[in-house]
Write a structure and sequence with these properties.
Bound molecules: adenosine-5'-diphosphate
Number of domains: 1
Strand content: 15-25%
CATH architecture: 3-Layer(aba) Sandwich
Distance between the termini: 46 Å
Helix content: 40-55%
CATH topology: Rossmann fold
Order of helices and strands: EHEHEHEHEHH
CATH superfamily: HUPs
Structural class: alpha/beta
Largest sheet: 5 strands, parallel
Number of strands: 5
Radius of gyration: 16 Å
Shape: globular
Length: 161
């Protein structure tokens, strides 16, 4: 039984993340998508909101479950019997950071490996920060996130569309 963890901020989850989730769920027996409870960043959505949104978008994928975590990712993986961390790679700019992170995690927990999935081309440009920036100016985010997430995002910025 191969269990993988896909960690991230998911603030909010985009079609790019959803694509990675679907593909990773096809490869592994069980995929846990886990929201990082990062106390340093000020997120748009609370951890609880992000978990609920992720549960909604993954409800049709039986081997996916959603949780949140804080602390060291490798400790969290060990506690949950997961040997694999999933990360998505969009562009070369992601690569250096992700490589360093993967190597650090390998040093911290030598029984956890990172597996990278490259983004599908149609989502290569997409990030949660782009979604927030466009939504904050009242722009159209319908190509970036599912409709109910778009609605929730506009609401955060008090924007009526
Ligand atoms: P963001 O950079 O969007 O704030 P997160 O911290 O939520 O991202 O990212 C979690 C993981 O998902 C990271 O490995 C990130 O590279 C990946 N990811 C984010 N957006 C995309 C995308 N459009 N396509 C593929 N992977 C992505």
């Amino acid at each position: 039984m191969k269990r993988a963890i896909y960690p991230g901020s998911f603030d909010p989850v985009t079609y790019g993340h959803i694509d990675i989730i679907r593909r990773a769920a096809d490869i592994f027996d069980e995929l846990q998508v886990s929201v990082l409870n990062n106390k340093v960043k000020t997120p748009l959505f609370s951890v609880e909101e992000r978990v609920n949104i992720l549960k909604e978008v993954t409800k049709d994928i039986p081997n996916v479950n959603v949780a949140s975590y804080d602390g060291l990712l490798v400790d969290y993986c060990k506690k949950n019997n997961a040997g694999v961390i999933i990360r998505g790679l969009r562009a070369i700019t992601d690569f250096e950071f992700e490589l360093q992170l993967a190597q650090t995690n390998r040093k911290l927990g030598d029984d956890v490996d990172t597996v990278f999935l490259t983004t599908s081309l149609e989502y290569a440009y997409l990030s949660s920060s782009t979604v927030k920036e466009v939504a904050g100016f009242g722009g159209d985010i319908s190509k970036f996130v599912p409709p109910f997430i778009a609605e929730l995002t506009y609401k955060k910025y008090n924007i009526k569309r």
